[in-house]
């Protein structure tokens, strides 16, 4: 453990937990903001929200290998731990949990890569326990990333067990992730409250994401078309002009493809169950999209996700 | 909540957790003994062990539907809550957690049966989160009960989250279960210590089990053949007379079948990984068996399990 002017930095799970327990013994309420680092304004807004919800904010920085597949960008995921620490300290975080690995060390393995899906070690002592939210993990991002939410639910479980927070704050850009964590907490009786915060956007509407840094200059210029398409769809449904999911999805795809995006999906689903809908005017509807844009690094593409909730008042 | 002369009885998860947290605020160390009730000397020995490990013992009584399949004995599993409570009180338990259901209520469902595997509700709001220990759940009992350990790992996770114990005590009659919980705790970073206690046996060697009460008088008389077969195998290996797993398994099966048991499995496996072995003399070996004996109730059979660890000192 090291301390940077009152902000504790833990790399050991047991030291992190001990510190958390000491704070709780003192009656402090703890909020956790889990991140994969490379922090932007969106993350910092989560820390800001967390400060309102608890006495102490702990943020974690960890790029979790089990939510990446072998062909995905685990190795390319941007990292800047020192800049991140400075930002968290400036925001008033009390502690940062920054483990080297959250998975059991596998004999002979040099890197965390061994925990990436498809590269897992088959050593009988390696990590083998996973949490799955069986229905909610299937649609949307679950289609093209079939092991993604298994990895997310598992690592969030681990972080909850290590930090033992009273409340945890997630961003709704990862809308499906937020719903999955919410359901997991309900189903497994975690003593943790889950809060989902609104998406933060750049001035031109692009949802903030650590991955934006990997876009080519041209792609960065065109990517705000995603949000324009989402806004168009929301207005089309809420004004009563359109309610057919198929028609809306086709329009949204067209708008994003015209901006140079290669579509993974654009789907209108029930905002709670994430199941397909027949008529976008009848319930609170989530329009979620994922699209690939050109990347400036050798990996070729950057996968961006975004979403908008339509007819929000019906659910409430 | 009700209190029976100083033993608290909780049916609500939030009241259970609040009480546990109060005890911890007072600096008390809590041990959990999870059970499915119909308590026998084996369970009580776990409570006895738990008292040595902590300041306060909490026992849970809950027949968990998600670890039963539709054709199994969820409905027939013996229940005697009042006798159990009296036993736990006499043993010095401080609290009993006795929930009606640990799963989300499904609209229109009358009973817990709706959470038995194969009878699950497909309601979009029903329980859907499961913990799986992917390698260790497959062999032995995982063969004939493919969803069993998923249900066990899930309900133990829930109990850990509700009671928040410092230590939890399990019996090694359920050897595979103990290994699975131990691995789950390691992999998911639970702040809980897991302790496995030796099997308790009747005078004639039959492993104590709530299910023994369901045997016919004749089956009860013959069932100790299981332990005789296990002892024979241990002596055969440890004396150097036999080391071939196939030969030993055949002998053990024969002995149990001669006593009227119908074999599910008899297997020699590595005592840690539960993987098949080639030579029983080379590592600490688990001989685990499951066999069906005649039942006095209409269900027809009672499934008994038992095990013995051979060459225990090699592992140590």
UniProtKB/TrEMBL annotation, chains A, B:
The keyword Nucleotide-binding applies. One of its GO terms (molecular function) is ATP binding. It comes from the Eukaryota. Pathway: Cofactor biosynthesis; (R)-pantothenate biosynthesis; (R)-pantothenate from (R)-pantoate and beta-alanine: step 1/1. The keyword Nucleotide-binding applies. One of its GO terms (cellular component) is cytosol. Its EC number is 6.3.2.1. It is an enzyme of class 6 (ligase). One of its GO terms (biological process) is pantothenate biosynthetic process. Keywords: ATP-binding, Ligase, Nucleotide-binding, Pantothenate biosynthesis. Gene3D superfamilies: HUPs, Pantoate-beta-alanine ligase, C-terminal domain. It catalyses: (R)-pantoate + beta-alanine + ATP = (R)-pantothenate + AMP + diphosphate + H(+). InterPro entries: Cyt_trans-like, Pantoate_ligase, Pantoate_ligase_C, Rossmann-like_a/b/a_fold. It holds the Pfam family Pantoate_ligase. Belongs to the pantothenate synthetase family. HAMAP family: PanC. PANTHER family: CYTIDYLATE KINASE/PANTOATE-BETA-ALANINE LIGASE (PTHR21299), PANTOATE--BETA-ALANINE LIGASE (PTHR21299:SF1). This is Pantoate--beta-alanine ligase. It comes from Chlamydomonas eustigma.
